[in-house]
Amino acid sequence: MKISIAGRKIILVVAILVIFFLIITQRKAASDQIADLQVRYEACKRHAESLATQLEVVNSHKKKIESMLADIKSEQDFTIKECELKLRTIREEDRMNKQKLLSCEQRVSLGNNPTGVLLSNITEIQLQNQRYVEEIARLKSQLLGNQGELKSQESRSSTPTTSVQHAENHQNLVLP
User: Fold this and answer.
1) What is the pLDDT of residues 101-113, one digit of tens each?
2) Contact 132, 88 (CB under 8 A)
3) Cα(64)–Cα(58) distance, integer angstroms
4) Which regions are flagged for Polar residues bias (predicted)?
């Protein structure tokens, strides 16, 4: 079967029209995909900018919290050192009072001083010694409390807290 020249021209024109239609259809689909990708790109870009801003805020809060924690730790270290110094001073005074008491007891046993005066001195020294012992116990308790608070602050610093919570925690740490 032979096709005439006119038939061939018609087939050629139809083929060209089909190819032209396919090209236009593909171009439209590609154009739609490009527009969709641009919309998605803009949404991703906005989301990335939002995340970057949030990260900056989180980092600034982290720096503030670390700074506050360092301040609290240094304050507590100072308080602990101060309590230890006071404890050493009280222990030294206690030791000296014990020596005075021993000296007074020796004088009483030797009979160098009247008994009434020595007994009042001994009683006075024993009362002062008791106050020192109570003060030592109170300072030890305060020292242990400060160390416990320091440890709890260090463990809290590993978990995220808000600035308000951290400020409340800082106010609770102020010693009376």
Assistant:
1) 888 888 767 665 5
2) no
3) 10
4) 155-176
